Amino acid sequence: MSKVLGSVELAVRQSCKTGESPVWDAPRACLWWVDINGPSLFQLTPATGAVAHWDFDEALGCVALYADGTLLLALRSGLVRFDPATGGQTPIAPAPYDPKAYRFNDGKTDPQGRFWVGTMHEPRTERSAQLYCLTETGLEARAGDVMVSNGLAWSPDGTRMYHSDTRAQAIYTYPMDPATGQIGPRSLFAMLPPEGGRPDGAAMDAEGCYWSAQFDGGRVLRFSPDGAILEEIRLPVSRCTMVAFGGADRQTLYITSATDGLTPKKLAEEPLAGSLFQVRVSVTGAAIPAVAP
């Protein structure tokens, strides 16, 4: 039996179509996240409550940090380096897919600062999405056989990579060489029953436990390294999408959510759908490094 954790608070009231990719920016003491289909980028400064946003003209899958304060954005057309101070964009790598059928989805840096990003097959009829790693020569495909690439996280020592396929209800792990970023064959970590939601975005804590947002399940699950469900956080919305640890002590868990696909009746029942939530937890989150130069 899993333990139900403390009360969830509203951090920012919004109506994001697909809120996603929260990441804590320690130097600026702020949280970044995106609305994939807004498409928009958001910044929350918890100390003041100030929220800033930037709008884009194409789907924005995820965001990662550079040490100089610029951001890596995964736009439908490709990866760019974005300067929030000026709005300037510098191309990094073009999208390695047909943009009529695919887009970037979940992305994150591993413990060594390598940026990984997955894709999704938007018609959701083929397990043809890929997981890529950004290298000096561009995006290299490292894993596939998924429909919606999601749930990226790494064990604290960097020897185990977690990756989910939301549509398949499955969370996988891969052995990984931290020095090279090469991964081995995947193993099934957890298969979730459909009535409890689908495994979406995730985060790792300092104890090696994996936190997974359950889309359409209205909850976040904490898994032990061997796949047992230890704890559960329940939300006032069904479509929670991703989690990230933040705050000075990395013990505030931020949770994004979505309105996309909800019926008018469901939206009326969930007035906070699409908002950003937070909850204090007793464990420290693993640090997410900046993108390696």
UniProtKB/TrEMBL annotation:
Positions bound to substrate: 103, 105
Cofactor binding mode and count: Binds 1 divalent metal cation per subunit.
Pfam family, one: SGL
Membrane-spanning parts: none
PANTHER family from the UniProt entry: REGUCALCIN
Family according to the record: Belongs to the SMP-30/CGR1 family.
Protein name: SMP-30/Gluconolactonase/LRE-like region domain-containing protein
Organism: Elstera litoralis
